[in-house]
Amino acid sequence: MFAIIKTGGKQYKVAEGDVIRLEKLDAQAGSKVEFTDVILVNDGKKDHIGEPTVAGATVTATVEEQMRDRKVIVFKKTRRHNYRRKKGHRQHLTVVKITKVALGK
Question: Around Cβ 56, how many Cβ atoms within 10 Å?
């Protein structure tokens, strides 16, 4: 059984036991998080597709840790105008482990 959830402006394909890194969520490590924006649920036999979300479907996860991704360098340059800008960015992430995918009715 797997599901496609939407969080942080992105979509993720998840199944029970998966560990995924998401955009930062306001939750402490060890707490439970429930996702209700479930776009699709596959129960092994049939796809349940939402319009836009599947009614009653939820995905439950536990927060493993809050972390920051590796640094991305942003470098801008204009030739022959002595213009150079170097900036770094580290995105805040939340690592979650999927514990339950429920279809609901």
Answer: 13
- Contact residues for 23 (Cβ-Cβ < 8 A; gap 6+): 7, 8, 9, 10, 91, 92, 93, 94
Exposed/middle/buried for residue 96 (C-beta within 10 Å: 0-12, 13-18, 19+): buried
pLDDT bucket at 104, cuts 50 / 70 / 90:
confident
- Which residues are paired to 48 by β-bridges? 41
Task: Give the 3-state secondary structure of residue 70.
Answer: coil
CB contact set of 69 (below 8 Å; sequence gap of 6+): 21, 90, 91, 92, 93
Give the up-direction half-sphere exposure of residue 18: CA atoms within 13 A in the CB hemisphere: 17
Please give the biggest Cα pair distance in the chain.
Answer: 64
The structural domains of the chain, with segments of one domain joined by +, span: 2-102
The number of C-alpha atoms within 13 Å of 69 and in the hemisphere containing its C-beta is: 15
Q: Is residue 14 pLDDT above 80, yes or no?
A: yes
pTM reported for the whole predicted model? 0.85
